[in-house]
Amino acid sequence: MSTIEYAKYKFKSDSKRIVKIPKEYLCKASELVGMTLSSKNTSDFTKKIIADPYFIVRYVTPMTEDLVRAKKGTQEAFVMEDKIFFATCLEMSYDDLIGKEGEERIEVMKNNEFLRRTLEDF
Predict the structure, then answer these.
(1) How much of the chain is in helix, strand and coil states, percent to nearest 5?
(2) pLDDT at 63
(3) Which of 13, 23, 29, 116 could tie 88 with a disulfide, CB 3.0–4.6 Å?
(4) What is the spatial distance between Cα 93 and Cα 114, in angstroms, rounded to a whole number?
(5) Are 100 and 108 in contact (CB under 8 A)?
């Protein structure tokens, strides 16, 4: 029996695509994307990241800074949002593998493979 709770994610770049993501990943990845989108510039983004110990050492890719500079509301920005979201989820799934055993580990590995393939599709 699965102990992982799932939630739906609707792609920003294609609103017709909806996938199920582990809820924990969805919340944290959405938080990072939100911090990115609400930042006025890279300096503002850096201050927000430094203030959040969860994100300070992980999950921030060069793409997040590109999104800070991107013109909001464009298809290119929506694709970047999705890429950042799935890259963050993928990194979280790698971290999640540590300490997992049995069926739970297999489920995390399946999530990992799904996230990796989804990210490659971009």
Answers:
(1) 60, 10, 30
(2) 83
(3) 29
(4) 10
(5) yes
